[in-house]
Amino acid sequence: MTDMAERPAYTRQAGAGLLNGETAYVGNGRRQDDVTWLLEQIVDRAKRPLTEMQALPAEYYASEALYALEQERIFQRDWLYVCRADEISRPGDWYSVQIAGEPVMIVRGADSKIRALSRACPHRFMDVLGEEDDGKQRYGNKEGGFVCPYHSWAFGLDGKLTGAPLMSRSELFERERNNYCLESYSTEVWHGFIFVNFDEDAAPLAPRLASMEELLAPYRLDEWRVMERIDWPELPVSWRVVMDNGRECYHHQGSHRVSVEPLWPSNLVDADTNDDDSFYWERLFVAPDAAIGEEDGHPIQPVMLPPLEGLTPYQRSHSLLVGVYPTMWFTPSPDVMFVAKWWPTGPQSHKFQLDVCVHEAQLDNPELKKAVSDARDWGYQIQVEDSRSCAGIQRMLHSRAANRAGGGALSHLERPVWQFQKYMANRLADANL
């Protein structure tokens, strides 16, 4: 940041929407902790036409003050991708995760219904998974329900209390017994992807994504299975940095010039597909030099497994990159699908997870193990490259030059970044764009 002594004069202003008594300023200077100014910048960029798209200033990515507003208006109100339904396929299966700091377990009930339950016991707040979950993402099966390891209170797979030993003398307990349940949250399964929302009044997710149904139908996404997972260590990089990086293909020619660019060169990516503020999708066409042949005039993309039955030559000439805001994307492809999600773990840190999925028709394929291993290694290499680039950006955010630049013009291939600006403007500033 530029020293305050070098800044232009400011005029103090009482601003609505400030967090925790922060001060807003007007003038030519900028403050990365001035939330009002940052929201103005987000709305300004989001309103621009495609030919005038511009990156947000460095202060947006560096701001810690903005994080509290994001927690309130995004992570406590929007649909957040957690896992695939096939990962909890049997009654009693559970999947544990920290969602924006909230300890949650996704549970398959005896009725086969999927629920999102808090792990905090309503008695004295012990983690009902205890040592079975040590802060990392875990899996397991509790067909008989959950027993809190602290005082042995028991809960069914639906979160309802089923037992509380030695509580008969408590008249308060007897009156309130039916209220002692594990807190539950809204869930929605969309094409095999499980989403959670902490806002009980949230509108359903599927209608927001309806315009992609025809595009995705040939890939039969409900039929894919998670085979391998890359659980990346926490990195001291803002989630805003990694999300903007992850959704655009312009950087293939730089960060991924050896791994991705030879297969899906930047100049062949079609990012001009939609301008929605809930999702984006792009077509990543195979380079003619990397194709394994041609059919009906379309270069055919290399595959590690037999391509999904029913895809046309055109659909086998490329992979899709589909993102659902705020924190996930997936890649419907002829043979292998990657699913990625990012979790902010603090104002300037995040966790990343990448899953390798295959269609259920390939589960008995003798080449499956090698194909999954090769896909995982490729995904790992891409993440190494992305982590290096994002860390380089993070190091520059407080530099004098970055704070004077204000953000540069965006390529047409960075259209999803502009779409996310719309998402942020609508969620954080109620811009209604």
Furnish the topology, listing elements before pairings.
Elements: E1 11-13, E2 24-26, H1 35-47, H2 58-62, H3 65-75, E3 80-84, E4 93-99, E5 102-108, E6 114-118, E7 138-141, E8 146-147, E9 154-155, E10 161-163, H4 171-176, E11 184-190, E12 193-197, H5 213-216, E13 224-235, H6 239-246, E14 269-270, E15 279-285, E16 294-295, E17 298-299, E18 318-324, E19 328-330, E20 336-346, E21 349-359, H7 368-396, H8 400-405, H9 415-429
Antiparallel strand pairs: 1-2, 3-12, 4-5, 4-7, 5-6, 6-11, 8-9, 9-10, 11-12, 13-21, 14-15, 15-18, 16-17, 18-19, 19-20, 20-21
Helix pairs in contact: 1-9, 6-7
Q: Remind me, CATH topology of the largest domain?
A: Naphthalene 1,2-dioxygenase Alpha Subunit, Chain A, domain 1
Q: Assign the CATH class of the largest domain.
A: Alpha Beta
How many distinct domains? 2
- The number of helical runs is 9
Structural class: alpha+beta
Major sheet: arrangement of strands: 3-12-11-6-5-4-7
The helix fraction, in percent, is 10-25%
Radius of gyration: 24 Å
| Largest sheet descriptor | 7 strands, antiparallel
Shape: globular
Count of strand segments: 21
**CATH homologous superfamily grouping of the largest domain:** Naphthalene 1,2-dioxygenase Alpha Subunit, Chain A, domain 1
Task: Produce a short descriptive summary.
By secondary structure, this protein is α+β, with helices and mostly antiparallel strands. It has nine helices and 21 strands.
Features:
Rieske Iron-sulfur Protein, 22% helix, 433 residues, seven-stranded antiparallel beta sheet, 9 helices, 2 domains, Naphthalene 1,2-dioxygenase Alpha Subunit, Chain A, domain 1
